[in-house]
Each structure stands twice: as C-alpha cells, then as structure tokens.
Write a structure and sequence with these properties.
6 copies of one chain form a homohexamer. The first copy, chain A, is an all-alpha fold. In chain A, helix 4 runs antiparallel to helix 5 and helix 4 crosses helix 6.
Chain lengths: 124, 124, 124, 124, 124, 124
C-alpha cells in the first residue's frame, strides 16, 4: 500500500470512517496537497512507525497542542486519545501536568476543549 | 510530609541524589523561591498525583519542551525519562513524532539535546 | 486558611463574587482539579505573596498573555487590572508597548480584546 | 508626506480604500494609538522601504503569521498577497512549506483561513 | 530632537553611556537599519510616550521576554529594570509570577539570566 | 530516484557537498531517522515541488525561523538563501520586516545570526 493509503487507514482507525469521509468531502484543488501531506507524512510515515503505540502518540499530541495553542487539532487528538484507550482520569492528569510546564492559561484553554469532547461522547 | 519535602523526594527518585544536591548547592536568597515552587507545585503537587505514571509525565515533558524550545529543561527530562524506563528507541520515536506537530526545527534541536544525554549515559 | 480558600478569596477580590460563582457553577469531576490548582497555586500561593501589588501582577499578565496569544485569560486579566486601578490610558500604553516586543499582530489582537472589556465596563 | 500619511497610502494600495475606511470607522480614543503605530511604523516606515517588493513582504507575513498562529492578521495578509500578485498555486506552496517548519497544525489552520479568503474572492 | 536622537537618549538613560557606545561600536552597513529602528521606533517613539513610567516598561519586558524565551534582551531589560529602581525582591516576585502563566521552564530560564545580572551588579 | 535521494540532492544543491558530508558524518542509529525524515519529507517532498522557487523557500524559512526563535536552522537557511541568490540588502530588509511582526527581540537575535554568516562568507 502506498503511504497516502496507509495514512488514510491509520486516520480511519484513529478517528472513524465518518471523520475521514467528512474530511474528504472538503477536498478541493487548493487543499488537496495538505490533505495528502497529512496522510502521507503524518499518518502514513510517522504514525505508522512501530516503537511507540497510538495512545502514546495521541497523548504526546495533547501535550504539544496544548503548549502550542492549537485548539482545532487538540479537539481531534483528544478524541483520538479517547478512541485509543485514554480514560477521562488520564486525560485530566495529562492536562493538569501541562499547567506546570506550559502555564496555567494553556491548560485552562485545553480543559475547555476537552470538556467539549467529553460532553460530545457523553462522558461528562 | 509537607509538599516541598514530598517534591524533593520525587525529584530525588527522578534524577538522583547527586542532581538534588547540585541543585541545592546553587540555592541563594534570590532563587530559593523558585526552587521551593518547583518542589512544592511541580513535584510535590502535580508529579505526586496518581493517574499517570512518571514515565508518562517524563515523555509529555519531552514533547512539550521540544515544542516550546526549552533545551535546559529538555535535557533534564530526557534524562528523567531514561531513568523512568524510556528506551533509546522510544525516545527516538517520541522526538520524530514532534517533527510533524512542532516542526522539523524543533525536532532537530531536540535530537541534538538527546544525543548529549545518550552519550553522557553511554547509550550512544 | 488553607491555600485553596486563600486563593478563592484573592479571586473574589480581583474579579468579584459573581465571577467566582459563575466559575464554581461550571465545576465538575473533570475540571475540579484545574480549578483547585488555579486557586491553590496561582491565587493562593503566588498572588498571595507580598513584594509586588495586585495591579502590577495584573499588568504583567496583560503583557504575557498578549505575547502568548491567550485571549480568554487576557480578557479576565484586563478586567482584573481595571478592577485593580489600571486606567484606560495606562492600559493603552501597556498594549502599545507590547507591539514593539511581541509584534504588532499580538498587540492588535490584544487591543481588540481590551475594547470588548472597556465597552462592557462603559469606559469606551 | 509624513509617515502616518505614507503608511495610510501603502495600506490603501495593499488592501483597498474600503478596507482603510472600515478600519478608520472603528477608530476611538483608545485604539487611535495602535492604528497610528501601524500606519507610522509598519506601513509608513518598514513597508515603504525599497529593497524587497510588496508581494515578498506579504508572503513573509503569511509564513510568520502561520507560524505565530495569528489568524486575524493572516486573513488580511493572505488577501494582501493575492492583491500583490500571489497566485492560488503559490499560496498553496507557501502554506505547505510552513507545514514542515512550523508544524502540520499551524499549516492546517492557515489553509482554513486561506480557503475563506479564496472563497470570498471567488477563486475557489 | 528627531526620533532616533530621542531614542538614543532614552537608551543612554536606561542602560548607561558605556552600553550605548558598545552598541554603536558594532554598527555596520548591515545592522545600521535595525539599530536605527530600535532607537526610532522602540525607544524614540514608544518608550518616550508618557502614561506609564520606565520601571513599568522594564518589568513588562521582563515578563514578555521570559514568556517569549528571549534571553539576550531579557538580560538587558533586567539590567534596565534594576537601573530604573526595581529591587531584587521585586525582580524575584515578577519572575515567580511568570512561572504560573508562562510555565516553570520559562521562569527557571529567566531566574538563571537574572542571577547573572545580579552577580554582575554585586547584588547576589 | 526515491525521495531520500531526491532530498539529498536538493540539500547538496542548497548547502554544498561539504555540508552534506559533514551532516552524514554525524549519522548514528539514533538520529538516522530524523536525517532520513528531513531528506524524505522536507527536501525530497516539499522542497522538490514546483510552484515557488528555492530562493522563496529560503526566505520564508528566514521569516519563520526568526519568529519561532530557532537560531541553529536560521543559520543554515540564511546561508542557503545567500546560496540561492538572496543579496545582503534583501536579507536586511527581510529581517527588518520581521521586527514589526515577530517583535524587535526576534529580529535582533536574527540580525546577530545573519552577521555570523555574512562574516563567514566575507560579505561583511
């Protein structure tokens, strides 16, 4: 399987078929390149590597995206973490941990995003 | 045990007695407040919480400090991660993962710091 | 008084009882930990220290939150600064000063947030 | 012509008279200082310098504002870049390039902003 | 007095004649533009404005440069703050405050820079 | 040619054979993955795309790396920009432009890095 296809499969397993279809539905001649880059490089090359599991990759993203202030992708990766087995208690501890290292504002913003996802998944 | 003492104990277990002594040796009337804050809040309050283990806390820090560009603390937490059971292969995968999300420059800077620690620990 | 209670009292004095009640109303088993961390560490430990006054702490936050791009907390701390005696003219000078050091985009975003608060307080 | 007037002229040429009028309509005694700073320093001093052309200045801004996560100004400068001759293909390549250096989340956020502008200009 | 001259005078009062001479000695045809921009825009325009005093401007910079991770300029502005009347105790409180909002790593890096300056000024 | 080879060729053309050899000499079982990622993704996939030329890619990097505070890679890409036809005057204008958008500290740090490269290339 080529890397774009491998990446789409990882994304499908991480976020579900509906997510992948919704993203494909937004595809146009401008953004096709970044969708392909995400599938090829992000999911098809890096996520596909062995050595650390998907739950670990998801929680690394939660920490990074909280520190970097990227709520759109944080939303997706909190959802992906939960799909990969991260519990609500683990999520809370991860976000509280970021308060020390990335600062309280970063953590507070991330808690707000996490609560959206937890409500959507009827876990709160 | 009060929180500062609890924090010192966590730091001792994470980095070793020599690290703690070296840090204490730098204490003066100006920086005592931030050393106490670190022991109290960071190690004695947040690190001491159950729910996620120390290896997980260490790798979250590796990701955040790489994204935030803080090599001094990244150095300590890479060392702490290794002390907490993170293998060289896992470390490589964590840092490569940051290249996608925090950008290649952030990851390249982190690989350089990691190699210092691995050489110091005769793992490279 | 324990640190959480001390912190709640600082927050009450800074932002008003209504703000504290509104925040408490959002409390749940997921976010309780970060609300307690904020009250304990942020307000009950650091804000409670002598040495610099509350207006100074507020304006330091305005500068940092502008540089870091955290509009949600910037909104609160601009309001807190005004409650702590910061005038509209001082606020303007603080934000213009950030344009040099954090860049014009950061300052422009902060001016927009400040105008929301000033209008809410009928100062603009 | 003094620098504020020179800056207003650059902004008029970059974004159009309607943009300048809309911005002037928001002027009040609080934000006048930052509007004047933008016209004086940003457009009337730096943008007015020879040596690199306006299209180049616009694309440098696209890269910086993507990396810094400033969507409001990114919106304006993507529009300014298009006004200065940047094609849709060039814009795509610039944003894809940021994915490597500023990380995929930064680039994905920027692609979303760019699509808004391209739709507004009926180029997508 | 034109703005560059006004700015040089502010810089002279803030950091001393020796600092200004040392900086002038590094001037060449490449960096003259940024030295002039600093004198003109930063010191001659923004710092010269009334409304907030120089000590306040200095401490805002300490907070921002700590959050942004810019140790070179942090060094200068900590020195400038001390020259403008900031005491060692106030400096400590400012930096500890940043630990909450910008994260502990940012504050620890800043404490290290501050200790360099305090030792240089025989205040530690 | 596979993407890693294509990327090595781009890097060779951008920075010279000596740079590539020096980098290869540092290769080990830990960092091979990030060297391959750089060659594959950065140079072999993104830099290899048509649509914007190499000089443009280099100057976008100068702007981003200045804003992000990554001096190690900024050093390389300033050198690459000069190799790709960027003049000293253009480099000055690019860096001065960043002062407005990324803040004066970011620009001052970048001017210092640029002067190192210009001296190394006997252009200053």
């Amino acid at each position: 399987m080529d890397r774009i296809e491998a990446g789409r499969q990882v994304l499908r397993e991480l976020m579900g078929e509906a997510f992948l279809e919704a993203r494909d539905a937004t595809r146009n001649d401008f953004n096709a390149a970044v969708q392909d880059y995400a599938d090829d490089v992000c999911f098809g090359t890096v996520w596909s590597r062995p050595g650390i599991d998907r739950k670990t990759r998801s929680i690394l993203n939660i920490a990074m995206l909280t520190a970097l202030g990227r709520p759109n992708q944080l939303r997706s990766h909190i959802e992906g973490a939960i799909n990969n087995g991260c519990t609500k208690d683990e999520l809370r501890e991860i976000l509280l941990h970021t308060a020390v290292y990335a600062g309280l504002p970063a953590a507070v913003d991330a808690f707000r995003v996490a609560e959206e996802i937890l409500r959507k998944k009827e876990m709160l």
